[in-house]
Amino acid sequence: MKQAVQPRMEYDMKAILEKAASYPMIFKHLTWIEEIASSAQGNLHPLIRILYYNRVGETDPYLSELDSDLSVLQGVPNVSKVCLRMKNYDQFLDERPSLRFAAQYKLRDFEVEFIAESDEKRPDFLIRDPKSGARVIFEVKHISGKTSLEPLILEVQDLRSPYIVSVYTDKLELEIQAINLARRIEAEIEKLLKSPAKISYAERHVVDLGYCRFEIFSKQSDKNGNTGVMLTWGGPVGVQESIDRVARVVRESLPQLVRYDVTGLNVIVLEDDALLHQDVVQDALYSTPGLLKDEQFEDVSAVKYVKNTIPRQEFLFLNQNNMHVKNGTLASLSL
Question: Containing domain of residue 323, as a range?
């Protein structure tokens, strides 16, 4: 007889709220924490998981940085709407880099405004130079790597089942792919638990999604417990494949920028957990395919590439065909 799927572990609400309260800006601005933590799917939310695993009395660098950014951004137009959107599992991961970069510019005395959502996709935020009045519009993208994949996939462990999942991947580009991957794995496990199919170490359930493959097989004990997860990050990705990844993400950023302000000083920010070499980004932008030499990208002033190393490394790639680069406006802002 097939074993029924078991509920996920329940979080200690009091402990989560106590930890959240130790970060005053998080507790003040992310007012949905208690609601999400008490919901049926609360343990899927990245912030709830971080709060759960952060021990009371210990300072978590991720939470500390988020708390600091929220403090800097108090009073910024539409920041409350960004905080509310972060209630959504998917959007939390999308909005977090935007808060980080917006706070950096606020600390440099730029005026900052988050761009309100509409029926169509819009850029993330804009800044103004109080001296010259120059306005810069930012679209932020996060290139996902091994560091961002692991905690997302490990969510699968919370699902109680008699199975082990082995995941093989090296092509994730965005956080949303990792989120969808975790959800797909969970859906396959729940489907198997209701199916008459016999799964074993030798007879595995294999799913190939193109950008990754995962295999589900039974534990030796065949008993319910936390689902086992084995993560295998593939070998080195080829240079051309890395260039193609960057080019795809940059192309995805173009429509919302030009729809919002085709003549604006538009900047694409690439935050990278995959730790690509900056030469890969340079090739994508200047060589092959050379996006910043393509007249289709003439309205993009620059691409800012940020590597999540310690300390972070930043590179600004200028579009020499853009009018704001030609007239010196972009250079005067020292972005």
Answer: 239-333
**3-state DSSP of the chain:** CCCCCECCCCCCHHHHHHHHHCCHHHHHHCCCHHHHHCCCCHHHCHHHHHHHHCCCCCCCHHHHHHHHHHHHCCCCCCHHHHHHHCCCHHHHHHHHHHHHHHHHHHHCCCEEEECCCCCCCCCCEEEECCCCCCEEEEEEEEECCHHHHHHHHHHHHHCEECEEEEEEECCCCEHHHHHHHHHHHHHHHHHHHCCCCCCCCCCCEEEECCCEEEEEEECCCCCCEECEEEEEECCCCCHHHHHHHHHHHHHHHHHHHHHHCCCCEEEEEEEECCCCCHHHHHHHHHHCCCHHHCHHHCCEEEEEEEECCCCCEEEEEECCCCHHHHCCHHHHHCC
pTM of the predicted model as reported, rounded to 2 decimal places: 0.76
Give a yes or no: residue 295 inside a domain.
yes
Where the chain has pLDDT below 70, the residues are 1-11, 54-58, 144-154, 170-179, 222, 233-237, 274-275
Residue 73: inside a domain: yes
Whether residue 130 is contained in a domain is answered as no
